[in-house]
């Protein structure tokens, strides 16, 4: 009898878990109420989505009377028409304020939404200079910013310094995405065969001018991958044209032990433009990856608990990460900031285990962070910890952008 009772209790407990399993997410940024397979869906807390229960309870603690799903949908606005966007557009949902809420789910469906805060929407610029629309990675950055509660300005191509004064003063924040390689002539070098292939001079000019203007005007900024490189170049620094070749020279100098280096076969070098063919290198160049770290299309750590890779002097990266090492970042580059040529006013605050610079800060500004890795690659991850890590960089930027907007709004009222 006792065994049967225990079995019944366990069964009821399991049924209870299955039937009443619930989750509560506080301080969730709301993005949209959308339609998915004929079912209304809430998009919130980044890229999280969940169907909305028929008996969902909607309430508003801000006193603006959002007390129904229809009112909530109206307050959040509509998804942008991505196919119609062009440079110079402001991208948003049409909603005046960003909404923060406590979201409760039961059995995978949203059962309650309580709006707890309204926030202003700062205008964050994204430097996108491509000939045909924008890349998938650049759209991910724009989407991520929208989901953090801002409007996004797709900055037009800037070719002259005076155009910065025309297009940029309205910005509260800024992101420079990754992309093509830099032309080495920008930092006084001749292109190396494995170096800056497929260069884009139009984008190079844009990124230098935009970066200098934003730094000079203390606009909060996040520079990603190529962006990190141009943060350095724009302020007078130089780049390693090819990380594997650079590491190979360190091996030959005895600065990296041979046993820690894995040679990379030289299968030829691409040309400077996208139309140039691959040319066989004669003789072959000595290129390696060191300490098991690859930098192209893979993940690697930044330091470890035993050997931290983030400087204790970091003022932007360290508060975001919360510790002096990162177990895994997504990386895709073969150029990097040259440790012997760091731009004026920049501080190196992170290295990967093979010594490559992973982050730069312009600490004289309120927020100016360059990262060689891709937090934007993690925001859509199925791993909630990776997604949270990716979003933390954009949320930090948005917080500083919102603070800048508030300060400017207050100044304009005087």
- Physical arrangement of strands within the biggest beta sheet: 4-8-7-9-10-19-18-17
The first-to-last residue Cα distance is 79 Å
Question: Stretches where pLDDT falls below 50 for ≥5 residues?
Answer: 1-19
The 3D shape can be described as globular
Task: Please name the fourth-level CATH homologous superfamily of the largest domain.
Answer: Class I glutamine amidotransferase (GATase) domain
CATH class of the largest domain: Alpha Beta
Describe this structure in a few short sentences.
With 414 residues, this protein is an alpha/beta fold. The protein contains nine helices and 19 strands.
Describe the structure.
This protein is of the alpha/beta class and 414 residues long. The chain has two domains: 23-119, no CATH class; 156-413, Rossmann fold (3-Layer(aba) Sandwich). Helix content is 28%, strand content 28%. The protein contains nine helices and 19 strands. It has helices spanning 2-20, 69-76, 136-147, 161-167, 201-216, 226-234, 243-252, 317-321, 384-413; strands spanning 22-36, 39-44, 48-60, 90-91, 98-106, 109-119, 123-127, 151-155, 173-176, 221-224, 239-240, 261-264, 287-290, 296-302, 326-332, 336-337, 346-351, 357-362, 368-371. The protein has an eight-stranded mixed sheet, with helices on both faces. Strands 1-2-3-6-5 form a five-stranded mixed beta barrel. The chain has a two-stranded antiparallel sheet with strand order 11-16. Helix 5 (201-216) links the parallel strand 9 and strand 10. Helix 5 (201-216) packs across helix 6 (226-234). The radius of gyration is 24 Å and the shape is globular. It starts with a helix and ends with a helix.
